[in-house]
Amino acid sequence: MADIHPEHAHIIEQTKANMPSEEILEKTADVFKVFGDKTRIRILSALSEGEMCVCCLCDLLEMSQSAVSHQLAVLKSARLIKSRREGKQIYYSLDDAHIGAILCTGISHVEED
Amino acid sequence: MADIHPEHAHIIEQTKANMPSEEILEKTADVFKVFGDKTRIRILSALSEGEMCVCCLCDLLEMSQSAVSHQLAVLKSARLIKSRREGKQIYYSLDDAHIGAILCTGISHVEED
DNA sequence: AATACATATGAATATTTGTTCATATGTTCA
DNA sequence: TGAACATATGAACAAATATTCATATGTATT
Questions:
Q1: Gap from B76 CA to D11 C1', in Å?
Q2: Which residues have C-beta within 8 Å of that of residue A17, sequence separation ≥ 6?
Q3: The pLDDT value given to residue B7
Q4: Residue A9 pLDDT class (50, 70, 90 cuts)
Q5: Mind listing the pLDDT tens digit for each residue in A40-92?
Q6: How far is CA A28 from the centre of its chain?
Q7: For A11, which of B33, B41, B56 is closest by C-beta distance?
Q8: What tens digit of pLDDT does each residue of B1-22 get?
Q9: Cα A82 from Cα A25, distance rounded (Å)
Q10: Of A43, A100, B1, B112, whose CA is between 20 and 30 Å from A62?
Q11: How far apart are alpha carbons A101 and B106 in whole angstroms?
C-alpha cells in the first residue's frame, strides 16, 4: 500500500465525495451476488413468468428439491422473492417489479453483443 | 429428483418456452457474479465518476496494488472496463454506458428501502 | 391418529474465489 | 544501459458457497 501521490489527492477526494457510502456499496454488491449464480438466475427467470410452486421449479430446472429449496431460501432472505402457502404447496414469486427489472437489464446486456 | 407431476407439465413447458436460453442465463449469472463483490463494486463506482489510473484506485480504495490489479483483470476480462496506457500509467474506465446503468439500477434498489 | 406429501434445514463436502506475497513485464528518465 | 516507477501475474492460502444426504416440519387425507 503505497503513499498517496500528492497530485492525486484532489481527484481522489472529489471522487470519494461523489460515491455512495461504503454501506450502500456493500449492500449493492450483496444484491448482485445473489443474482450471480446460475441456479438462482434460472429461478428468477422462471418466476418472472409468474408464481410457481417448489416442485414445479424442481421439475423445470431438473434439480433436486433440496438444492432448489436452499436457493429459494437465499433468494427470500435477500428479499428478491416472496412466498405464500396454498395447502401443501408453497408458491414463490418475485418480490417486486424492481427485481424483474434488474434481471432484464442483465439479460439485455448479455443479449446485445 | 421426483417425477414430473402431469398436471404441471403444461405450465412447465410454457414457462420454459418463454425463458431465455440456458446459455444466456448462464452468461447473465456470470455478469452479475462480477458485480457481486464489494471491491469490484467500489472500483466500478469510482470509475463511473471518470477514468482513473491504478495507483489512484489503490489510494482511493486503500487496498494493495496487487489486490486492485487482480480485480481490474477480472473486470476487464468480463468486459466491464477497458484500459488505455499513458506513459507509465494505465487508465481504466467503464467499458460502455450499459455498465454504469446496471450499477445504478443496483444502487437504486438498495437505496430505495 | 397415522400416513403420505410438500417443503425446509443442518451438517458435510467439494469447489470457487479474494487477498497476499513474490516476482515479472513494460515504460521513462538519467 | 541501468535504475526507478507503474502495473500485471502466478502460486499459495483462507474464506465463502453450492450441492448432497439425511432428516425435520407442516399440511391434507383417510
A1: 22
A2: none
A3: 74
A4: confident
A5: 999 999 999 999 999 999 999 999 999 999 999 999 999 999 999 999 999 99
A6: 10
A7: B56
A8: 445 666 788 899 999 999 999 9
A9: 24
A10: A100
A11: 10
Q: How many CB atoms lie within 10 A of CB B1?
A: 11
Q: How far, in Å, CA of A107 to CA of A113, rounded?
A: 11
Residue from A25, A68, A74 to probe the interface with B (highest B Cβ count within 10 Å): A25
Pairing of strands B52-53, B89-94: antiparallel
Average pLDDT taken over every residue of chain A: 94
Q: Looking at residue A47, what DSSP letter applies?
A: H
Cell of B41: 463494486
Which residue's entry shows cell 418475485? A94
Residues 44-83 of B with CB under 8 A from A: 45-46, 49-50, 52, 55-56, 58-60, 62-65
Point out the nucleotide closest to B73 (alpha carbon to C1′).
Answer: D8
Which alpha helices (DSSP H) does A1-113 contain, by range? Answer: 9-18, 22-35, 38-47, 54-61, 65-77, 97-111
* Dist. CA A28–CA A93, nearest whole Å: 21
The DSSP letter of residue A41 is H
